[in-house]
Amino acid sequence: MQSRAIADELEKQFPNTPSLHLDAPVLKEVEDTLATLFGGLRPVVIPRAPKLLNPPSEEFFQRTRAVRYGMSLAEYEKSEKGGENAWKAAEPGFRKIAELLKQNPGGPFFLGNTPSYADLLCLSTLQYVKETGQDVFDRALSYDDAYAALYKAGRPWLERDDR
After folding, report:
1. Which pLDDT score is estimated for 161?
2. What whole-number distance in Å separates Cα of residue 64 and Cα of residue 152?
3. Treating both helix axes as pointing N-terminal to C-terminal, what angle do 117-132 and 134-141 enclose, rounded to 10 degrees?
4. 110-135: pLDDT as tens digits
5. Any alpha helices (H) in the chain, and if so which ranges?
């Protein structure tokens, strides 16, 4: 199941719990912008992803991504799409997300003080970036203070107790 389908189902099955605000007008723009942002940043983060996996999964990931990108992940990272070009491609997305976060003053979330599914999407992207490397995470946060504020406010949802 995709995460949106899960969110839809949670809203149906648990109507008396805090809403994910799937009807928030900002959600579609956040989804589209994150897709573009991540598309640009892919050559930076995807080559780092195998270190997060167990050995059999790492081998599978390396092999299937080499087929998908037509080159090894090491080559993909060093390709013309990687490095500073990847950051340049992702920058408009980082700027747009920050702008959207600041549209509702009074809170770190897209809806001000009210967390929503849009925030969870952004938080999960930031967490994935952090897992791939502190340097990448720090650079992502450097685009705007709104990212650090969102990450700090959303930190409780990112805590794990199974490590």
Report:
1. 62
2. 35
3. 140
4. 999 999 999 999 999 999 999 999 99
5. 3-13, 26-45, 55-69, 73-78, 83-101, 117-132, 134-141, 145-158
Question: With bands split at pLDDT 50, 70 and 90, how would you rate the model's confidence at 105?
Answer: confident
> What's phi and psi for 113, nearest 5 deg?
-90, 0
CA distances from 47 to 51, 79, 113 (A): 9, 11, 35
Mean pLDDT value of segment 58-75: 96
Contacts of 47 (CB under 8 A, 6+ apart): 73, 74, 76, 77, 82
Provide the 8-state DSSP code for 109.
B
For residues 135-139, give the mean pLDDT: 97
Contacts of 52 (CB under 8 A, 6+ apart): 131, 132
3-state SS assignment for residue 8: helix
Summarised one tens digit per residue, pLDDT across range 49-66 is 999 999 999 999 999 999
